[in-house]
Amino acid sequence: MRNRFALTLACMLTACSSNALPFTPAAFERPGDAAFVCFDTNQNPDVAVSLDLCRKDANGVLTPGFWLHSLVLQTARGEIAAVDLVNNVLLDSDQSVPGYTFIEAGDLPSAIVVPTVAPSDGSPLHAYIANAGTRDIWSVAANRFRTPEYGTDPFAARVSLDGAPTSLTISPDERFLFAGVPDRGSVYQIELLPDGGLGAPTEIVLAAEIPAVVTGTHEDSYARVCTSGTVLDAGARPTRTPETNGVAPRPSTLLVDRFSETPSLLIADSALPIVHRLPIGSAGLGAELPGIAVEIPVRDVVVTPAVPTNVDGSGSSRYLYAIDVHGDVMAVDFTDGESFGAILPVNVPFARTTDRLAFLPLATTLEVITPGYDVGDPRNGLCSPPATISIAANRLHGVFLAVGFADGTVRIADIYDLDAPCRGEAGMCEGGAGSSSSDSIAFIRRHRPRIGELITTEISTVGSVAFISDGATWPISATGATASPWQLASARTHDRVSQWLRRSVPARRHHSSIGLHAGRSLGGRRRRLDRPIRRHRRGGRSGTFRR
Amino acid sequence: MRAFPHFTTVLLAILTPACSLDQAGVDPVQGTFNFPAEVALSPALAADGAPAFLFVANANFDLRYNGGTVMSLDAMRIAEAIRDPAMCPESATAPCVLDPSVYEINEVRTGSFPGGMAVSTRGDRIYVPIRSDGNLTYIDVDDSGRLSCVTNGTVPGNDAPPARCDDGHRRGDETIANQRGEAMPADPVRVITVPLTALDAAAPPDSGDAVIVADVAGAMSFFIDERAQNGSTAPQLIDVISGLASGLAGLAYDPTSQLLYGTSTRSSELARVGVALDLQAHDLRRSFLFKASSLFVGGLDDGRDTRDIHFDPANQMAYVLSRRPEVLLVADMSATPRNNGELPVEQLIGVSAGPSRLTVATIGGTQYAFISCYDARTLYVIDLDLSREVGIIRGFSGPFQIAVDSVRNLLYVADFRGSNLRVVDLAPLTTPGADAALSVVAFVGTQRPRSELH
């Protein structure tokens, strides 16, 4: 009996040696574009409502039962995932299938748009998805994400295009969709019909003529600088030969400029050095306006609302920011006038390039954020923070440029800080209301990385540092000086290095209102916004000095 | 007590034959795939200018057999079968399945675990570094695609059993390098061939190839395979260089800088190695490898695992397949990097989990990158002109090495986990505005379920 048991056990043990397939729960798989939608969960079933209903009130309180959601494209699987951002819950679109499942979209979903205002006739709010693989636009009732309907096609309508759409946006009156089709060099306009219907697409081929570069300069004295150091002005713009990546336009990103008196569609062109402009009227897109010559093709573009020209709130200016195909961020004057379209010098003379923002990593996405900013009254809220919030670098109140980078960080550039007139330590800076610990020195300048920390320690060497050139060893002193021509240049600029070395800092706190109406994902890999300040690196090595 | 001796006797009777030390093991089954790790096409030798033969190296990863194999398949017949409506109807809802034994020309037996595979410039020799043996095995290919790796030089007949490559076709610890006290390191991961004329402009045309093998421990071995006008000689190990970035994975030669680049799975370093030839005496046996300064993959999160690299000298571009993050890095080698010593990356194109191999080919006048994502079990097709993906092919078990027949518009993927080849029809890429999605149109070999391998 015992022998039989032992033999049986031995057989069982050998049979149990094969590896079982591990269960892999569904998760985001290469998430792409995202859009926001508000659900009223007080109703049964839940209903998608206008986005404003999910906005916090003046006291920062959400209306109970109104839950903000995000619809995120899963580009690797061709699906749309829904996330409840209030309860931090991933929604299962088909509970009859084990594990999380998402609504299937077309092949290679590339962009998604959800109108911000629900239809006034009570019909369901719809989401619209551009599919680059199947070359079409689909619409789906947003309610389906909260209340799945099994056994029925979730998509209300489909319309085919002649090319692969890679970007999608909606007109200000939310009557038209605009889809960018790079392989045709055109933009498609699709009228939105009741009940999620889609009208026949109309193709608008973009112009291929490259406009002349605007050489005027825009006077901008916006600055709040309260430091004992020397402040460097931006260097002169370099003379560039316009670059092209082909002969035909290639729309990359679409942006509706809602802040202009006449709304327009701005189109970043990744082949030609142009930002295209098309006016948006009651019938949709009009004839193309003269484009903005940017000298290098760009991948992404954003515009600011009108912001005061000066720190005291006077004057009015607008700016356009773009990521060029080399991954650098440029600033362009978008103010009506002689210098409209001029690329602005924004960096110090000895920078890698003077007409690109002083960010080093590769930029991948950007967005203009306007926390607490009243577009109708730019001076509203000037230096009037709530009593519970102290003025500091990590308080974003005004208009800023948020840029996502390939290194996983999101960094902020100053455009208009409503707290600027009172930044800086009280008693040390005129009008300053900051403390010595949180906001001692103010250094705010337009188009510059937002300063979070001033490095007061001078650069020094650690140990004996030297380099070898032509067989000779060159020791480097604590002042950075040696007898070599390279070090002579370093010594000349050394007294300014400590002032020039600034670190931009991401927002220290994830503010729930930042990006509420961004409507575009920041892309890249998400990182916590409270991560430590990263040291500037050169040559891949950290430390206080380079070897 | 009485039952115990019987049980012991039975147990000993079962175990004793298995304990013999002279077991030859089980030979691989001819005409079948067994964890195909490498796939390569011969140079364009067919009448239509298309590759004539498809070579597959099987890893024998589960050590079920006593070694791996290298198979030679008739690429033209496979393509004809796929395009034949009678065999692979377009209306079929599932890919058609082709029996590899039908299309196999012949095969030879090698050690297990090939660390790469490369074909000579003339297409008459295959180089396969074998990890189990720690050597470079070379296999001769005749005009009909038959493989041979035995010293007597006779090509086996049609019905002969596959021959096992003899010691004469295993190189790595002999002659010149041995005189320098060097031997090929034991853990090869990639191998490439570079025509000798690319290294030495004065070299006679068609004079042979340099064969470079990368080792995971951060070393490269340099072989020279010279070809005489009449007949050929064996590859000779000339030099071995170590101290490169550890975890080497990808290997490529940049004709512009004339440097070899190696990617690392353990650091952000791109190892760069030069080849110094004796150009005065034109004695290639006096050549050696030297370290050029490394480049670094910086400005990413975190850039410390790159798997493959490809150069486009015409446009001075480099494409690096990164696993951390999971992207294809597009670098303009003519641009000034953001930091000194960094790869001048200008764009990131996202792919899925576990990107493993990168192949670049021109289809219909457009350059595409084909990327196998092993963990995600997908194959990405990226239009390098548009800088975006144009297709994601799903449903693989373990896609790994890729070979592209750009004349017949077919792509071969070695499905390592499924032990078969998948064939993707690339014809839709040649038709502007075509709505057909890319898909697997044929299996070569049946899907053989395996346990998850980690």
What brief labels describe this structure?
heterodimer, A: 547 residues, mainly beta, 6-stranded antiparallel β-sheet, 2 helices, 5% helix, 30% strand, disordered C terminus, B: 454 residues, 5 helices, globular
Report what the structure shows.
The complex is a heterodimer of chains A (547) and B (454). Chain A is built from 2 helices and 31 strands. Chain A is mostly beta strands and 547 residues long. The termini of chain A are far apart. By secondary structure, chain B is mainly beta. In chain B, the strands form 7 sheets. A 5-stranded mixed β-sheet of chain B has the order 1-2-3-5-10. A 5-stranded mixed β-sheet of chain B has the order 4-31-30-29-28. Chain B has 5 helices and 31 strands. In chain B, a hairpin with a 4-residue loop joins strand 25 (366-373) and strand 26 (378-383). Chain B has a domain at 35-110 and 136-162 and 396-454. Chain B is globular and about 75 Å long. Chains A and B meet through helix 1 of A and helix 1, strand 23 and strand 27 of B.
Secondary structure layout plus pairing:
The complex is a heterodimer of chains A (547) and B (454).
Chain A: H1 2-15, E1 31-40, E2 47-49, E3 66-74, E4 79-84, E5 89-90, E6 103-104, E7 109-113, E8 126-131, E9 136-141, E10 155-160, E11 167-170, E12 176-181, E13 186-191, E14 202-205, E15 223-226, E16 251-257, E17 264-269, E18 274-281, E19 284-285, E20 289-293, E21 298-303, E22 319-324, E23 329-333, E24 363-369, E25 398-405, E26 410-417, E27 442-445, E28 451-453, E29 466-469, E30 472-475, H2 485-500, E31 503-504
Antiparallel strand pairs in A: 1-2, 1-3, 3-4, 4-5, 4-6, 7-8, 8-9, 9-10, 11-12, 12-13, 13-14, 15-27, 16-17, 17-18, 18-19, 18-20, 21-22, 22-23, 24-25, 25-26, 28-31, 29-30
Chain B: H1 3-15, E1 36-41, E2 53-58, E3 68-74, H2 75-83, E4 96-98, H3 100-103, E5 104-110, E6 118-119, E7 125-130, E8 135-141, E9 147-148, E10 163-164, E11 170-171, H4 175-179, E12 188-195, H5 196-199, E13 208-215, E14 219-226, E15 236-241, E16 248-254, E17 259-264, E18 269-276, E19 288-296, E20 306-312, E21 317-323, E22 326-332, E23 345-350, E24 355-363, E25 366-373, E26 378-383, E27 388-393, E28 399-405, E29 410-415, E30 420-425, E31 440-444
Parallel strand pairs in B: 4-31, 5-10
Antiparallel strand pairs in B: 1-2, 2-3, 3-5, 6-7, 7-8, 8-9, 8-11, 12-13, 13-14, 14-15, 16-17, 17-18, 18-19, 20-21, 21-22, 22-23, 24-25, 25-26, 26-27, 28-29, 29-30, 30-31
